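In keeping with the milestone schedule agreed at the kick-off meeting, the structural modelling team has produced records for the first pair of proteins. Each record is given below as a sequence line and a structure-token line. The laboratory manager (R.T.) confirmed that both were archived under the project's standard naming scheme.
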Amino acid sequence: MAQDKRTLFIKRRLRVRNKLRKVNSGRPRLSVHRSNKNISVQLIDDVAGTTLASASSMEKELGVFGKNNLEAAAKVGATIAERAKAAGVTEAQFDRGGFLFHGKIKALADAAREGGLKL
């Protein structure tokens, strides 16, 4: 039975979220969202239900508004690593959602790791 792209995306997202739930060790979750024009990331504390830090390519100070490319993803990754350090977070679980781990998502994760965030 053929399934459309959206259904496959939702199945991947649920599978990733369930795996994260199983191995949750009290670490915050680094949740990534990618659209056609922008990329954004949040550092979420699931126990308290709060956002500890966030970064997006829509922020003016990053200078990559409206861009969804590797450069923008790397800048967003470096920014979230800085903000996580400021919030006192050194390690997190990487929640890629339903997105495949390559290209922009991989560039964001690599930049966050280079910034000192342990994923």
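The second protein of the pair:
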Amino acid sequence: MFMHILFVVVDIGYGGAFYAFLSAERLGLDVCSSKTQDLVDAASAVTEAVKRQFKLHHPDNEELAFLYGTILTDGKDAFSDEPTTNISCIIQVRICLKLHLQFYFKC
């Protein structure tokens, strides 16, 4: 069995559930051209590592204080008029969706 150890920084976000966010590029992957299984495996590893290393807290209900999954981005994390591509891997139910999202930002 081959194990690759990599240290990365992730952002944790909440929008109804907690997710870890990072660019797939930090893991040596591309959300558009990498094999889906490679993306799922990498996101699963990130989710498990975050669960082991961080204790999340929910302000209203501690039963909601768990990491729901990992979202790998295409690295275009700043505002862009162009669509961005992300892959959301929800580990508990093994769902993996590629999403093309157009982000809008208004000051």
